[in-house]
From TrEMBL:
Alphabetical keyword list: Signal
Keyword Iron-sulfur belongs to the record: no
Species name: Tropicimonas omnivorans
Domain Oxidoreductase molybdopterin-binding: 75-142
Signal peptide (UniProt feature, chain positions): 1-22
SUPFAM superfamilies: Oxidoreductase molybdopterin-binding domain (SSF56524)
Lineage: Bacteria, Pseudomonadati, Pseudomonadota, Alphaproteobacteria, Rhodobacterales
Record's protein name: Oxidoreductase
InterPro entries, per database record: OxRdtase_Mopterin-bd_dom (IPR000572), OxRdtase_Mopterin-bd_sf (IPR036374)
Length: 169
């Protein structure tokens, strides 16, 4: 049954999806993991874009391997790039306000929203992340790719237990 729901959600998302499309997003069929609000053009719930896991998985998954200051050894993270997510929603802003389930919030400048940059990870080493293990969503940068990603500023933007993003103009 879960596979059928996932397939249905992906099919619905694929029909409505398309970068910058003015169409509304399909409604999530599973538990909402991420809510995006603010300066976005595509929504599915009164000015917000709600995503379940299947919808996030349908947005061209990206996998990066990197070490982090919070884990032991190289880790493999899979998720959707922030750039792809905002492109899908027609998001245009100067800052992202990313907020965790415990209301911890951090500002991410638009300059961080680049292909090959940060992702909204939903898998760590091929497994969904529990709340206890920094999940279900974690903004992860490719820390090993450049010294620019190994700074206190970037580490502070690597918010785990992410559940909301507000795109600020």
């Amino acid at each position: 049954m879960i596979q059928l729901l996932r397939a249905s959600a992906l099919a619905a998302f694929a029909l409505c999806a398309g970068p910058g499309s003015a169409q509304e997003l399909p409604a999530p069929t599973g538990e909402t993991l991420l809510t995006v609000t603010g300066a976005i053009a595509r929504t599915n719930d009164e000015g917000a874009a709600l995503f379940d896991r299947a919808m996030l998985e349908g947005l061209e998954p990206v996998t990066i391997e990197t070490e982090t200051i919070w884990t032991e050894g190289p880790q493999t993270f899979t998720g959707v790039s922030l750039a792809r997510l905002l492109d899908e929603l027609g998001g245009e802003g100067e800052t992202l306000m990313a907020t965790a389930i415990n209301d911890y919030a951090v500002e991410i400048p638009a300059g961080d929203v680049v292909e090959g940059g940060a992702i909204v990870a939903y898998l760590n080493n091929g497994e969904p992340m529990s709340v206890r293990d920094k999940g279900p969503l974690w903004i992860v940068y490719p820390y090993d790719a450049s010294p620019d990603y190994r700074t206190e500023a970037i580490y502070s933007r690597s918010i785990w237990q992410l559940d909301r993003i507000d795109v600020l103009p």
